[in-house]
Amino acid sequence: MQVIGCMALDLDRVREIAERVAASSGLEVVDVEFRGSGAARMLRVFLDKPGAAGGDPLAGVTHGDCANFSREFGTILDVEDAMPASYTLEVSSPGLDRKLTRAAEFERFVGSRMRVMTRNPVNNNRHFEGRLESFHDGRLTLDVSVASKKSRKKMGAAGVEDGQKIGIEFANVEKANLVPEI
User: Fold this and answer.
1) Which residues of 108-129 are buried (b: 16+ CB within 10 A; e: fewer)?
2) Under DSSP, is residue 108 helix (H, G, I), strand (E, B) or coil?
3) What b/e string do you get for 57-96 counting C-beta neighbours within 10 Å, with b at 16 or more?
4) What average pLDDT score do residues 124-145 get?
5) Which of 92, 126, 147 is the last residue of a domain?
6) Domain range holding 107?
7) Which of 59, 73, 96, 131 is deepest in the core (most CB within 10 A)?
8) Residue 98 domain flag
């Protein structure tokens, strides 16, 4: 529950409605955020298409997908009175540099480049960039030899020789984002 003024917002209920609407259109909800206050309240929903990670640039969420979802989702929120106050609805794809938060997302993006920040240091460092080689049993393995020069500098002596791999426990991941490869 999130409190808006003196009203409570059940974000789990809003997410459940978003997931129901998304599933009916062959989409999946990546994240739901509620930010701001007063007239600046914003409900953001990030959508993706299952299978879009397969490398097909046309397989992602389209503008039409977002518009259709927005219309249907907004109507259901109003009918079910799930939002206790006025808000602006923003619907989009998670972007090329999408945030990764769930174990299923790490499994889905094995083989992709990413930046990871850990809660506790690993090899005396908290910042890593590399290709996600594997994700098994709550542990990700990053090949940091593919890191950019800027990231190599940031990682310092954390080990960036060719073929260097870093193991990080999923529970130690504070923040992770994909690194676009164009």
Assistant:
1) bbeebbbbbebeeebbebbbbb
2) helix
3) eeebbeeebbeebbebbbeebeeeebbeeebeeebebbee
4) 94
5) 92
6) 103-178
7) 73
8) no
